[in-house]
Design a protein that fits this description.
589 residues; alpha+beta; six-stranded antiparallel β-sheet; 19 strands; 17% strand; globular
């Protein structure tokens, strides 16, 4: 799709339209037209989420999530092509680009999505100039330059004591083309759970419930998001809905910051939610999850490119502190990635090494392909979302000598020093987690037991999403601050459906039984689950707990069974919360 034909329809700050406009006006119009093309496609796919949920079209929902991710690059490529055609020999003139930015800023001035449009402009200018660091003349840098937007679309209930009648009005205020399974029964149970939770926290007086009108869709679920205002305290109210065979039902009542934070966690596919004014939606979400970073909230609702921008701005602001220093990340050194962090900034930075030691047999491009594989797949809450950055510039003073020497030694093709700056050609960022092997070393017995059980659950959740982790080593998994186990090492990830799970052949001779090497043929893609015991099963006192919960991971039948269900088109249930047994019984699910 190209946008040249749309230029004359745009009125930029009163500039004349058509061919008489200045080249900088036409270039700004082309960038804005490409942005509007992306927004239109983004909103069109997002708008289908409700229908997918109502029709229980889970495959279609997955396809939409993947298709939406691809849109940004398509429209960015078109924008770059158009400005190259328009500017021709003047493409690299920074003074011209400063004028383009000024025209673009005036066009965005009254838009409710201005901050997203600014990031799109930055993507275009950085692609053209391959900017190292940032350039204030041709990029938007000030996060406060976006206009004030209208309040988030909400509806209030109360003040009063939450009861079944009020909750039924709340539930039925969301229009569906399919019925609720038992709206009255669900409403009574939800109200009872809210009153019980408020009583447990000493907030049993009159309350006001404020609900966002947009519904958040992801995977097989729909989420009603709101907040409870009680005695000067703000509590989240998250009501996950599922579409069971009998109709729509409430699946749980989530009222803590930790529960809400997991739902909006960094290891899940992005929500599809209608947000004409993204910032107001993010501000509402921040009120119920104050510990969640702004960039993570933008990313969670599908604006991952702007999430990258916000994260970068936060990092640069943090680096202005004279005491800010990078450090080696905790955990074992990786064979593929050089990993470092900043203790006071909850992120790790991963740089692909120049070469990989045995037994790794891969390439830089193959590693990058794995990260893209994770980006477009359904991560089911078990793969850390990674953001890719290019041409970054950091103060040299922020790197201890031993860390900088290490990076230059193992990744000299990517990292270089220029005066008082360290330039990094390409890296990935991920949320920092505690490596599982280190967590188990220091954790109390109950916490360690919970972690290893969730470790097995993580492997099974990924299998349900048609992902085989390959290296199922403890050091390749981590524990989030909410105690959830995720995988953050992607070297050996592949599609589960492409693996061949086999039983180990039994030896028929003494020579075969004691052979140091496999005496039977092993083809590429062959996997023998019986061998997992040596590296998958955690050592020590948690071993039996793991085997009791997940001993089937050592059985070829488990893996072949998952493959068979995937081949039949089943979309597995994976939920970011503990399902309410009481609510499930009421709906017969």
């Amino acid at each position: 799709m190209r946008y040249r034909g749309q230029e004359s329809t745009l009125n930029l700050a009163g500039s004349p339209t058509g061919d008489k406009r200045s080249v900088e006006t036409r270039a700004a119009a082309a960038i804005l037209a490409a942005y509007e093309g992306w927004r239109q496609g983004f909103e069109e796919i997002t708008g289908r989420a409700r229908e997918r949920f109502e029709r229980r079209d889970w495959r279609g929902a997955q396809a939409d999530a993947t298709a939406r991710l691809a849109l940004y690059r398509i429209h960015l490529d078109n924008a770059v092509t158009d400005v190259r055609d328009l500017l021709d020999d003047a493409l690299m003139e920074r003074t011209l680009w400063a004028a383009i930015k000024a025209h673009h800023a005036r066009a965005l001035a009254q838009r409710g999505d201005a901050e997203i449009g600014q990031t799109f402009f930055n993507s275009v200018s950085r692609r053209v100039f391959s900017t190292v660091g940032v350039d204030a003349a041709i990029e938007y840098l000030d996060p406060d330059s976006a206009p004030e937007a209208a309040a988030a679309p909400t509806e209030r209930y109360g003040p009063g004591i939450p009861d079944g009648a009020a909750l039924r009005r709340l539930l039925e205020s969301y229009p569906w083309s399919v019925p609720w399974a038992q709206a009255e029964r669900d409403a009574e149970l939800v109200a009872a759970q809210i009153r019980r939770r408020l009583g447990e926290t000493g907030l049993d007086g009159p309350t006001t419930i404020e609900m966002l009108r947009p519904v958040f869709y992801r995977n097989k679920g729909a989420y009603l998001i709101g907040r409870i205002l009680a005695g000067g305290v703000v509590l989240p109210l998250v009501l996950p809905l599922i579409h069971a065979e009998r109709g729509i039902v409430v699946d749980a009542v989530l009222m803590t910051q930790n529960e809400a934070s997991v739902v909006f966690g960094f290891s899940w596919t992005y929500f599809r939610v209608e947000a004409p004014h993204p910032r107001t939606l993010v501000e509402f979400l921040g009120s119920i999850m104050p510990n969640k970073r702004l960039d993570e909230l933008y990313t969670a609702i599908g604006y991952n490119k702007h999430g990258k921008t916000v994260l970068y701005r936060s990092l640069m602001e943090h680096l202005e502190n004279p005491a800010a220093r990078f450090a080696f990340a905790e955990g074992d050194e990786g064979m593929v990635m050089a990993v470092f962090t900043m203790p006071a900034f909850n992120v790790v930075f991963k740089i692909i090494k120049d070469s990989f030691g045995a037994p790794k047999n891969t390439t830089r491009q193959a590693v990058m392909d794995k990260y893209h594989f994770v980006f477009v797949r359904d991560r089911v809450g078990r793969l850390a979302d990674a953001q890719e950055y290019e041409h970054l510039e950091f103060p040299r003073r922020c790197f201890p000598d031993d860390l900088l020497e290490y990076l230059l030694r193992v990744a000299g093709a990517t990292v270089r020093v220029e005066g008082e700056q360290v330039v990094v050609r390409q890296l990935y960022t991920e949320r920092r987690v505690t490596p599982l092997n280190l967590y188990l070393r220091d954790a109390a017995e109950e916490a360690a037991r919970d972690a290893v059980i969730d470790y097995g659950a993580a492997i099974k959740d990924l299998a349900a999403a048609d992902i085989f982790t390959g290296d199922m080593l403890l050091k390749n998994f981590g524990v989030t601050r909410n105690g959830r186990v995720i995988c953050y090492d992607y070297d050996e990830l592949c599609l589960l459906s492409e693996c061949r799970f086999r039983k180990l052949p039994q030896p028929t001779t003494i020579e075969e039984e004691f052979s140091a090497e496999p005496w039977f043929h092993v083809a590429e893609g062959d996997v023998f689950p019986e061998e997992f015991r040596a590296f998958l099963v955690p050592p020590g006192p948690v071993r039996e707990a793991f085997l009791e919960a997940h001993g089937d991971l050592l059985d070829v039948g488990f893996w072949q069974g998952v493959q068979r269900r995937l081949a039949e088109g089943e979309v597995f249930d994976v939920f970011p919360y503990r399902r309410s047994a009481e609510l499930r019984r009421s709906a017969g699910t």
